[in-house]
Design goal:
The protein has 276 residues and is of the alpha/beta class. It folds into 2 domains: 103 residues, 3-Layer(aba) Sandwich (Rossmann fold); 131 residues, Hypothetical protein af1432 (Orthogonal Bundle), CATH 1.10.3210.10. 56% of the residues lie in helices and 7% in strands. The chain contains 11 helices and 5 strands. A 5-stranded parallel β-sheet has the order 2-1-3-4-5, sandwiched between helices. α10 runs antiparallel to α11.
Length: 276
């Protein structure tokens, strides 16, 4: 339990009320609270936060927690002598889960703290269940995509590690893109989906004749034109799966299959796309 208040007596009173059930950490300023949260975020079950403090006040602490992505995992109860509706509304708007007026009843503080921690624990258990279900679905999807892509690589005489390398490179590029530009606003789920879809980039090669696909030397101009059709063939194969056209994985896979040989200067294939 992190108690944040510039008044030592207020911190002592709250610590006395809660020390039987919780380990107590204290901060005498908003700045000190943020430093403790950065170091001990995984250990803190709840924050009791004063509103009016010199320097960084309680509202600014809430704003900082939001920016650091802590608010979803660490509940905050505001405790303050300020009881006007405007103060309380602002606290809720910034992510506080409860507001206790001072002077307070010890029993009320204990009950509200316990109820809040119990509620968050139940939410986390539910989130874990949902995350496990999503992970299982993604694992099965990735397995099927991996099987299909490895069939193509096996026929193409390339090692199965080629697909893994493409996945890794795609994810690294997308992560770096998100650091460099805010234009695309990709979530981690989007990055995983695109990286998974990249496994199917060469699926159209399954329709290229063996004598061309596995030719040891350079292609003749005619052979090269045939090889180039693999991008359109792969996209066409996916487009024929009409019942899945609205699935995000299918949309990403189609675009990657069709356009992974396009070039910024417009000299790629099959559509000669150029620039942005």
């Amino acid at each position: 339990m992190l108690i944040v208040d510039d008044s030592e007596i207020n911190r002592v009173l709250l610590a006395e009320i809660l020390k039987e059930e919780y380990d107590i950490a204290e901060a005498d300023s908003g700045e000190a609270a943020i430093e403790i949260l950065k170091k001990e975020a995984n250990e803190i079950a709840l924050v009791l936060l004063d509103v009016i403090m010199p320097g960084m006040d309680g509202y600014e602490v809430l704003e900082r927690m939001n920016k650091l992505g802590m608010s979803d995992d660490i509940p905050v109860i505001m405790i303050s002598a300020e009881s006007s509706p405007g103060f309380i509304t602002k606290a809720y708007d910034l992510g506080a889960v409860d507001y206790v007026g001072r002077p307070f009843e010890a029993t009320v503080v204990q009950r509200r703290v316990k109820n809040t921690i119990t509620l968050y624990a139940k939410q986390r258990r539910l989130a874990d269940i949902v995350a496990d279900q999503i992970y299982e679905k993604e694992k099965n999807n990735n397995l099927m995509v991996s099987i299909l892509s490895h069939i193509v690589e096996f026929r193409n005489g390339e090692s199965g590690s080629h697909v893994i390398h493409i996945n890794i490179i795609t994810e690294l590029l997308l992560r770096q893109l998100m650091k460099k530009s805010k234009k695309y606003n990709l979530s981690m789920a989007d990055i995983r989906l695109i990286s998974t879809a990249s496994s199917l980039h060469d699926i159209g090669k399954i329709a290229i004749p063996d004598e061309i696909l596995n030719k040891p030397g350079r292609f003749t101009p005619k052979e090269y034109e045939i090889m180039k059709t693999h991008s359109e063939i792969g996209a066409s194969m996916l487009k024929n799966l009409s019942e899945y056209q609205n699935e995000p994985l299918m949309k990403a896979s189609y675009e990657i299959c069709r356009w992974h040989h396009e070039r910024y200067d417009g000299k790629g294939y099959p559509d000669g796309l150029k620039e942005d």
